[in-house]
Amino acid sequence: MEQLVIHLRALQHGLEALPVSHSQRSRALPPRRNAKETPLLLHPFGRIDPIFHLSFSGIGQIAARSDHGQATIETCGLDRESLRRVREPIAIDINRHVDRLELALAQNDYRCALDAVTDLLSLGADHRAHAGMVRAIVWERLGHPWSELERLKKRLQGKLRRAPAADGAGRRRPSGQPR
């Protein structure tokens, strides 16, 4: 079924064949049995991680990092303005949370850093729309894979558990001072 949808999408865009990387020619439909082709279209849950092939601007504009990315953008129409407008508020939120995280870490404000990481993890959860864009922007901005955010969350939680309690104004109480 998925191949049929991709084929129909290709026909919609005036393509008579799907892009492959074995040569300059496009793939013949149906494919030849003995053909040695490498599909260029990215699958969001496939073996090839789209994060290495697609990038996103601060307003949700998509760009290709590779031939795989370019073929996917063109075939699936991922650069449509209507889609960019849907991604824009999410991209702005992501960048705001990354800014908060970087500032909080620079100031050793572990509570604020934990809040920012929690917000990022929520926006990039598997069930959320545009989770791939969230993860790509986080990777581009922070230089770390998505899996590092969950580890960072656990480290921050540990630091907060070990930190002395704060008074009502958010200031740390010196040890031995009554509550």
Description:
The structure is a single chain. The protein folds into two domains: 2-31 and 39-76, no CATH class; 86-161. The protein is 50% helix and 3% strand. It is elongated. It is mainly alpha-helical. Strands 1-2 form a two-stranded antiparallel ribbon.
One letter per element, helices H and strands E, the order comes to HEEHHHHH
- Please state the overall shape, judged from the principal axes of the Cα atoms: elongated
Contiguous uncertain segments of 5+ residues: none
Provide the domain count. 2
Rounded Rg: 22 Å
DSSP summary: helix tally: 6
Please state how the strands of the largest beta sheet are arranged side by side. 1-2
Tell me the structural class. Answer: mainly alpha
Largest sheet: 2 strands, antiparallel
Structure summary, number of beta strands:
2
End-to-end C-alpha gap: 64 Å
Strand content: under 5%
> How helix-rich are the residues, as a percent range?
40-55%
Q: Taking all residues together, what is the mean pLDDT?
A: 82
Put the structure in a nutshell.
The protein is mainly alpha-helical and 179 residues long.
Features:
179 residues; mainly alpha; 2 domains; two-stranded antiparallel ribbon; 6 helices; elongated
Could you give the topology of this structure?
Layout: H1 2-12, E1 54-56, E2 62-64, H2 67-76, H3 81-106, H4 110-123, H5 131-142, H6 147-162
Antiparallel strand pairs: 1-2
Helix pairs in contact: 3-4, 3-5, 4-6
